[in-house]
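Sanity check

After download, print the first record. It should look like this:
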Amino acid sequence: MVLHEKYSQVTELTELVPLSFQILRFKMLDLHRKTLRRGEYNQESIDDRPVADCEGDPSIQAEQKERVSLLIEALQQLGERCRELFRLKLQGHTFPEIQQILGEVSINTIYTWDSRCRKQLLALMGGRWDGIPRISEGTKGKPGERV
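Expected structure tokens:
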């Protein structure tokens, strides 16, 4: 039925194979774009990440402590919705589960909130996830000086 309405120009059976491959290609590209937009394409399992051994090096401990305090400070400046979204993600909930918990109709709303909250957090962290402050280009700042 849909073929007759949407693709009325297709009249012969031999034209269906190229058309079906074109539709399949479009569907695959659409899926790829959605996974990139949602951040699912390049996600890493936290279980696969090695735990850093920093017990003996006080400079690494101090750097990590500073990074954690910067993260906590940034999280406290976020709105309630962003903090709740991050809390649910850290508890291991999937986006569809978060959608149900927060009572949202569309999952795309959750994806949008996640993207915006991550951007806000990144901005509050100084524009870098590693917590190392940037030196402004074109100025003669001291190493480690915040911009």
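If your output differs, re-run the checksum step. Summary of this record's structure: The chain has a mean pLDDT of 77.
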